[in-house]
Amino acid sequence: MSKKTNTIASALIVALFLILLNLLVWFRVIGEYTSQVLTIAGINAIIALGLNLISGFTGQLALGHAGFMAVGAYTTAALLMKVNLPMALAVLGGALMSALFGFLIGLPTLRLRGDYLAIVTLGFGEIIRVLMINLPELTGGPAGLKGIPTYTTNFAWRPVIPFALVYLALTLVVVLLNNLLNSSHGAAIVSIREDEIAANAMGVNVFYYKLFAFTLSAFIGGLGGALYAPFFGYLSPNMFNFQKSVEFLIIVVLGGMGNLTGTVVAGIGLTYLQEILRFLKDYRLVIYPVILIIVMLFQPSGIMGLFGNKEFSLTRLVSKMLGEKPLGGEESSDKAGEVQ
Amino acid sequence: MTVLKTENLSIQFGGLMAVANLNLDVKKGELIGLIGPNGAGKTTVFNMLTGVYKPTAGRILVQDRTGQLQDISRLHPYQITALGMARTFQNIRLFKNLTVLDNVRIGNHLNVKYNSVTGIFRLPGYYREQKRIDEECRALLKIFEIEHKSDELAKNLPYGEQRKLEIVRALATKPHILLLDEPAAGMNPQETLELMDLIKYIRERFDLTIILIEHDMKLVMGICERIVVLNYGRTIACGTPAEVAHDPLVIKAYLGKELENGA
Amino acid sequence: MAFLQQLCQQTLNGLSLGSIYALLALGYTMVYGVVKLINFAHGDILMVGAFVGYFVLKKWGITPVNLMLSFLPAMLFCMILGVLIEKVCYKPLRNQPRINALITAIGVSFFLENGARVLPFIGPNPRVFPTLPVVNYRLFGINISQVQILIFIVAIGLMLILNYIINHTKTGKAMQAVSFDKGAAALMGINVDRIISFTFALGSSLGAAAGILFASAYPQIEPYMGIMPGMKAFIAAVFGGIGSIPGAMLGGIILGVAETLTKGFLSSQLADAIAFGLLILILVVKPSGLLGKPMGEKV
Predict the structure, then answer these.
(1) pLDDT of C269
(2) Chain B residues in contact with A183 (beta carbon < 8 A)
(3) Is the dihedral of CA A207, A209, A210, A211 positive or negative?
(4) Domain count of chain A?
(5) With an 8 Å Cβ cutoff, is C134 touching chain A?
(6) What is the pTM of this model?
(7) What is the pLDDT of residue A281?
(8) Pairwise CB contact (< 8 Å): A120 & C96
(9) Quick one: pLDDT at residue A318?
(10) How far is B66 from chain A (nearest CA, A)?
(11) What domains are defined for chain B?
(12) Which regions of B39-167 does DSSP assign to beta strands (E)?
């Protein structure tokens, strides 16, 4: 009984929080520039969550999530511009196309030892970029694709709608991923990271679950890109280079591999930090890899490792605040409240 | 009734014949010991039975859930587990960073009745099924008296309990044949005695056929009805504990040539 | 006739490019052999080697003798760099999940590239590598340039030396032993840490040599120049069978020839895509590569 009330209470809190944030954006308490940075931060967090699913939870390093983002973004743009699909369908189409790419790449490579996925996804990311440059009818070529229909042209709504949509999507991704990972199927996925041979011996169809996780991961990466296209209104192949893929990896590593809370915190935090550090120019490019190396050497479980690798759980917090005994299960943890 | 049968099962690694012409015929409910000196090929036999290694020659027949004997020599490990044969590992292979309960839940994986979409959206039936799985897993842990450690990480359990957890995890797959690879390794005599009782108990309780590899002769001789002795990949003896213990080939294999000269 | 001539010409060009890939692929394969790590930073060693050669030749002036001599400081510098990277970044992670070392390798790769970019005396802009005046020799209607001859001599020379080290010296044999079974090698009294350092030193110095050769053939050098050759050399190593030294040489040559033939007869933009297509193909058909041995995990 009280478990249910807690879940409902948590959902309400999240909803109120999202509405409050949007009101702040609406009344420009959060300025347009900041809200844009936060929107991109939300998109980065979404893609990084996708990457964390395959790399952090399944234990297979993927290095081409900028490629999935590109597939999602360009597909959505094409669906909007050439087919005139409604926005929601175009975004969904972008994510689905990316999932298809993930499935096709995973099919030959995921049977092999994990290292190969890293190099094949890396190659995929680069090939996608080269393809985008060489398909000018569809992508505008190296000059980029201009004039993608945006979410809204209304001045008052301009910063609010993308912000609201992105954070709604982020909330959904977090909740649904968390649901998956707490289910028996999620346990099967994590068992692959822990010990592939033992997982196989326990009846886990390792290849199937790897492919499932990778396809879902590509879907989420594509979703991020799909949300990005109508927000920014302009795409260029060089936005989706290897550097970008590594940025997602840094978010996952810094937040903690296999921890959703950490990815959201690091995704939003790092993107915001990136804006603050703009004055450093190219030196930023040196700081990132140093972060990666230092985290791996000294704190491989990332920032959430400092908190015992636990996920932040709103329901737990609610039940604590209501003065109840903490419930055993880590039900429905929801991290949309992590903004700032 | 035969539940597991191997016909001239052999495997070669490069030039080395690790197991040669192994013929086993295991009847339902038997408790068989597989023994032999180090490097005799015992674990390799398990690895072939469970699909980790593919045999170079020969066949393995296992009774599936419908009672038919099925050739499994080309199946993947997870398919063999699904047929009803589960194993433990000599060098413990638990999911170290997961909780004890999660380890067992993964063992129970094949009996999950909802699909991943139901899991993601928590569709109707999810909570009921999840509760059932939870209760089943905890009941198994209770048999081995580690239920109170359900929420601890597997890596934090003491060695003996990790061995027990491996058995629980294998049992969670609902096997009718259980392969135990040195279940008593690293246990003290008291723990080994308790383990013997437990193995006998689970055989009755879950209607199991058990094959175990073990170095602890007391355990093997104490509970096995039949013993197969391997040396250099070849079967050198097979019979009751008493027969095997007096077999000259076995004595030679274990004690070496000195015995011949000395005795 | 003209077609045949062009075919031979492109094959020759492919052989010279392939020799460079082979030198680089050797570094990937040897390191993978002893520590089971894809050293993502190895391609950037090529870049570092090229820049060391650049500065040395700027100072000394470009003559055939100086060009040959420039290999020494470049190889020495990268040797030290390679060992340093291993000691600082990879060694502490040897007993952790493999994905951790892989991620660190990416970090190192980015650090080298972007580090070079912000270093005031290197910077992001391409520089022109000093080259000898172009001299072409004609043999049966096929052009062979001075640079190509240099590439063949250096590549073959270095591979012969490598072959001697690996098969005829104690350290080389120890390397093979470590590659076969680290634990058993340690029990046999082999200092595994020292052998791993030695492997990185050997691989990195070959990478540096590949860098100077690559820069002599394509005289534009910049911080990101190592990425593509690095990736192709890795593919070459996988193609030949990762862990196998003759495999890396063969794979490099095949990849180089495939690339120039694609560029010559199909499309230059497709060349990179073909390399990756080849990788996927070999992974599907024969994951252990042409000369590699199938590897299974011990249970």
Answers:
(1) 73
(2) 114, 116, 118-120, 126, 130
(3) positive
(4) 1
(5) no
(6) 0.92
(7) 77
(8) no
(9) 81
(10) 18
(11) 2-96+174-262 (3.40.50.300)
(12) 57-63, 69-71, 85-87
Confidence of residue B257 (pLDDT cuts 50, 70, 90): low
What is the Cα–Cα distance from A242 to C236, expressed in whole angstroms?
Answer: 21
Q: d(Cα A176, Cα A191) in Å, to the nearest integer?
A: 19
* Inter-CA distances, B171 with A99, A203, A271, B199, C232, Å: 36, 12, 47, 11, 48
Does A329 have pLDDT greater than 50? Answer: no
All residues of chain A having their beta carbon less than 8 Å from the beta carbon of residue C243 are none
Q: What is the mean pLDDT of residues A29-49?
A: 94
- Low-confidence residues in chain C, pLDDT < 70: 1, 294-299
Q: Does A247 touch chain C (CB under 8 A)?
A: no
Whether the per-residue pLDDT at A327 is higher than 50: the answer is no
Tell me if C108 and A289 make a contact (CB, 8 A cut-off): yes
Q: Does B122 contact chain A (CB < 8 Å)?
A: yes
Nearest to A255 by CA among A279, A228, A219, A291: A291
The answer to whether residue B43 neighbours chain C at the CB level (below 8 Å) is yes
For residue B210, which phi and psi values (nearest 5 degrees)?
-125, 135
B248 is written with which tokens? 């000259």
Residue A209 belongs to what H/E stretch? helix A206-232
State the pLDDT at residue B181: 95
pLDDT given at position A52: 98
| pLDDT confidence tier of residue B14, bands split at 50, 70 and 90 | confident
- Structural domain spans, chain C: 13-121+144-285
Q: Is the Cβ pair A285, C109 closer than 8 Å?
A: no
Average pLDDT, chain B: 92
| CATH code where residue A120 lies | 1.10.3470
Neighbors of chain C with 3 or more C-beta pairs under 8 Å = A, B
Domain that holds residue A188: 2-338
Q: Tell me the two tokens of residue A142.
A: 């190296």
pLDDT for A332: 40
ipTM for the complex shown: 0.92
Q: Is pLDDT above 60 for A234?
A: yes
Query: CB distance C118–A115 less than 8 Å?
Result: no
- Please state which CATH number belongs to domain C13-121+144-285: 1.10.3470.10
Which tokens is C260 given?
A: 């120039």
Distance CA C121, CA C104 (A): 26
Q: How far is A254 from chain B (nearest CA, A)?
A: 19
pLDDT mean across residues, chain A: 89
Cβ <8 Å between B98 and A191: yes
